[in-house]
Amino acid sequence: MEMLVSTDWLAGELGADDLVVLDASLHLPGTGRNAGAEFEAAHLPGARFLDLAALHDPQSSMPGKVPDAARLETRLTALGVTNSSRLILYDDSALRSACRAWFLLKVFGFEQVAVLDGGLGKWRNEGRPLENDVPVEGAEPGLSITLVADRAILRDKNQVLANCAVCTEQVVDARDEGRFTGATVDTVHNLPGGHIPRARNVPFTSLLNPNGTFRSLAELRATFEAAGLDLSQSVVTSCGSGVTASVLVFALHLIGKTDVALYDGSWSEWGADPATPKETGEAH
What we know:
The protein is of the alpha/beta class. The chain has ten helices and ten strands.
């Protein structure tokens, strides 16, 4: 199974015994949107609600911190997921949050995971069927799932701070240009704008077509290179809280680059710490 699947492909696979379709929508608090309520109003046939907003480390004040295995195991088991399931993730979010769910599942070792290109919006615009039932949740008797985190693809603040001195890993920031340069404040996290020293800027929206699908592989590669990334070297992605940084990780994997990690504290952690070095202005 490819990691990015089309609506045509999914329409032909719906109903397969090993296929689990998950709504991974997540919205910023200021939007006033409720992902769970929207799922109940309209979702893909047979889909289940992942509740991505709840899948973070409860000991952290930062919403992008990856949880322990038990929290994800409990949620996936309740949704009928097994280690052999093929998982299809979609969203109806401006954040393209299905990529965050993809990254989270990748951290915990899932290989058969794909993102629906264009999400619910493309599916709906094509006139494909939707449902408004509320699927019954609960683990089937004897069903269990075991997960182990691969934290080698995560970076914490101390690791990113150490990298500022040696620059063995390139940092690329998924936020918009205004917050990255410091021209505008980060109203999402109530912080001044700016970025990690020597970071490059690839707004996650620059990787998408107007209809929310991913641009071609050649265009994705060109976008990263135009931002000054050397694609032969390892990369760490960052954003505001670790969500849209996952879009960059996903796009880099699409073009075949796998030596990529994610700083899940991102600017909500880095920008709030007066001791961390910061830069403003264009990347240099």
